[in-house]
Design goal:
84% helix
């Protein structure tokens, strides 16, 4: 259950990061009032890609930290 919550927080973080990157790229590629098709497709796909990537990275970091803490505790 904890992994699901961390995955959701990672997805939210990925979406926020995508919005920032999207704004920066849109202003960089914006010329003559339109964005070219290639960069437009990349900019449009940033939100779902970074949301999934953020969820996966959050769960992986949690699992790694959980593994390290379980190795530190002595086995009885």
């Amino acid at each position: 259950m904890r992994q699901l919550g961390l995955g959701a927080l990672g997805a939210i973080g990925g979406v926020l990061l995508a919005l920032i990157i999207q704004d920066l790229l849109a202003t960089a590629f914006l010329s003559n009032g339109t964005i070219p098709i290639g960069p437009g497709i990349v900019i449009g796909s940033l939100i779902p890609v970074l949301a999934v990537l953020g969820a996966v990275i959050a769960v992986l970091i949690y699992n790694r930290s959980l593994k390290r803490t379980s190795e530190k505790t002595p086995e009885e």
